[in-house]
């Protein structure tokens, strides 16, 4: 069964702009799906709507069987979201950043789990550092650690490598591969076809608010 079911999702912004024009998509547990599309295609709008941050004009989203609007808390607790912008508290330590994030979801304290997450992301040695002392690449890792802190089953990464150099991009690809091995379902957006090719099992091509095709990676490459 699909962990995430998106049905005829539409979004018109207050100014009348139609950013999503009826997106339907099922995502299976454990897969990595890349949403590939140019700037302005509607990728962020899609992620924000699926995660319940913005309200769709029509259509539905269910996560693990929970409707994102009707059962927001249950659905949202299954989702980890890594936003495009680095929105971290500069004076907070890495450890507290991740611990508070778990607390926000009402999850009981589990230091062993947080240690495991930080170790996997090579952040354990930085746990006592303040966010402001970290490099851009490390801050992006903290965003991922935060998003994983409440043990989501689906992780969204919004343009995880936008504006980062080649080395950091490869770094991020490795992190995604390791996360897949841990069983979490991953949906990421990108405008780099080589990124979709490198890390995804399936690729959805989005343009002008519409999902043009969704293909297993091998089939997509044959079509392009
Ligand atoms: P919603 O329909 O979800 O309530 P709004 O249409 O009210 O969202 O937009 C939220 C804010 O984003 C508004 O202040 C709006 O002016 C601003 N905004 C308008 N156009 C854009 C754009 N092209 N990209 C990003 N933000 C925009
Ligand atoms: P992407 O993430 O693929 O770059 P977005 O979802 O951010 O695309 O934006 C899709 C389209 O919707 C763009 O044309 C953008 O300008 C527009 N848009 C985004 N937010 C708003 C808003 N709040 N109000 C009006 N238009 C918006």
UniProtKB/TrEMBL annotation:
It comes from the Bacteria. One of its GO terms (molecular function) is ATP hydrolysis activity. The lineage of its organism: Bacteria, Pseudomonadati, Pseudomonadota, Alphaproteobacteria, Rhodobacterales. The chain holds residues 2 to 225 of 309 of the full protein. Residues 4-224 form the ABC transporter domain. This is ABC transporter ATP-binding protein. Transmembrane segments: none annotated. The keyword Nucleotide-binding applies. Keywords: ATP-binding, Nucleotide-binding, Transport.
């Amino acid at each position: 069964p699909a962990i995430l079911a998106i049905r005829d999702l539409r979004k018109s912004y207050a100014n009348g702009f139609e950013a999503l024009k009826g997106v339907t998509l099922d995502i299976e547990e454990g897969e990595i799906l890349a949403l590939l599309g140019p700037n302005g295609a509607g990728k962020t709008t899609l992620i924000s709507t699926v995660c319940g941050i913005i309200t769709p004009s029509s259509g539905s989203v269910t996560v693990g069987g929970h409707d994102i609007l009707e059962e927001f808390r249950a659905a949202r607790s299954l989702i980890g979201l890594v936003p495009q912008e680095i929105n971290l508290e500069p004076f907070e330590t890495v450890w507290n950043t991740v611990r508070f994030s778990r607390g926000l979801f009402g999850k009981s304290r589990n230091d062993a789990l947080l240690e495991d997450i930080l170790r996997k992301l090579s952040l354990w040695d930085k746990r006592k550092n303040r966010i402001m002392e970290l490099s851009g690449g490390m801050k992006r890792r903290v965003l991922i650690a935060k998003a994983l802190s409440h043990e989501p089953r689906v992780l969204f990464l919004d343009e995880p490598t936008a504006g980062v150099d080649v080395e950091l991009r490869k770094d991020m690809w490795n992190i995604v591969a390791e996360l897949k091995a841990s069983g979490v379902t991953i949906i990421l957006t990108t405008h780099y076809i080589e990124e979709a090719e490198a890390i995804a099992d399936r690729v959805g091509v989005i343009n002008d608010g519409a999902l043009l095709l969704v293909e297993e990676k091998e089939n997509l490459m044959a079509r392009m």
